[in-house]
Write a structure and sequence with these properties.
Rossmann fold, globular, binds nicotinamide-adenine-dinucleotide, about 260 residues, 8 helices, alpha/beta
Length: about 260
């Protein structure tokens, strides 16, 4: 299979690093014009340079904007009114005991992880449906199904993304626009590296070894028994965005290394 996304424009939210940047690189390799996003201008410019190093000659631009607010989402869709592919990747995570999670943290997590996807789908899907082709992918998590007791607020947003994705897929029935969610398991992104730093220092481990130790102790049902790389997750995202994935819609696609102990998603 040769994935060719020539003449398609893809916007990937939260793509200055991690899974988002890897997905953007994969989409650019497949020939798509790619729009990168992050909060800070210099980080976005840095990501554009990294993408160009990985894919010389790629058609890439950056739109810095904080997507945790309605204004931030409007700034992005105002600067890029049409897109063929929308990857709702941006998300924050981090463990916190339930009794210490204040309303403001719940609200921020919901606004960024869920409402950015609502707002950007509203901005882009109508055009996709009118043009008769489009791909929307929500980056959810295995935590949508296995709600972590130490990240209930995060799991809550990731389950909400599955509902949103499934509903939007039905709304776009018969239009040529597909909507799917991708459920990564533990993945070695910058964000996860930060989360593992303390554990690595405490136990005198490298970050990679701490990743393996984390999976074995915190996600013991993992069949893969190690974190995925961001590229492994990006491969599924690029496939879901491809012409070839035309019969896959309303699906929850797992790239969790088998963490969720279930035959079906
Ligand atoms: P990361 O922290 O490495 O990268 C997040 C990106 O989002 C960065 O580019 C950051 O600059 C950007 N960002 C953060 N806040 C933003 C904001 N307010 N506005 C715009 N951009 C912002 O994250 P990651 O680990 O690559 O995760 C990406 C997605 O995958 C998230 O939705 C996460 O929940 C999901 N996920 C990650 C894992 C994992 O183990 N890494 C597992 C399952 C799901």
């Amino acid at each position: 299979m040769r994935i060719d996304l020539k003449d398609k424009t893809a916007v990937v939210t939260g793509s200055t690093g991690g899974i988002g940047l890897a997905a953007a690189i994969g989409l650019a390799r497949a020939g798509a014009a790619v729009i990168l996003n992050g909060r800070e201008e210099d980080r976005v410019e840095g990501a554009v340079r990294m993408l160009l190093e990985a894919v010389p000659g790629a058609d890439v631009a950056g739109i810095p904007s904080d997507l945790s607010t309605a204004e931030g989402c409007a700034r992005l869709s105002g600067a890029l009114p049409n897109a063929d592919i929308l990857v709702n990747n941006v998300g924050i995570f981090g463990p916190k005991p339930f009794f210490e999670i204040e309303d403001a943290t719940w609200e921020r997590c919901f606004q960024l992880n869920v409402m950015s996807g609502v707002r950007l789908s509203r901005a882009y899907m109508k055009g996709m449906m009118e043009r008769g082709w489009g791909r929307v992918v929500f980056i959810s998590s295995e935590s949508a199904l296995n709600i972590p007791a130490d990240m209930i607020h995060y799991g809550f947003t990731k389950t909400a993304m599955l509902a949103l994705s499934r509903g939007l897929a039905k709304m776009a029935a018969g239009t040529g626009v597909t909507v799917n969610s991708v459920l990564p398991g533990p993945t070695m992104s910058e964000g996860v590296g930060e989360m593992l730093k303390e554990m690595a220092e405490e136990q005198g481990l490298s970050i990679d070894a701490a990743g393996v130790a984390f999976v074995k102790s915190q996600r013991p049902s993992s069949i893969l028994q190690r974190p995925a790389s961001v590229e492994e997750v990006a491969n599924m995202i690029v496939y879901a965005c491809s012409m070839e994935a035309s019969a896959t819609t309303g699906a929850a696609l797992r790239v969790d290394g088998g963490v969720v102990d279930s035959i079906v998603p």
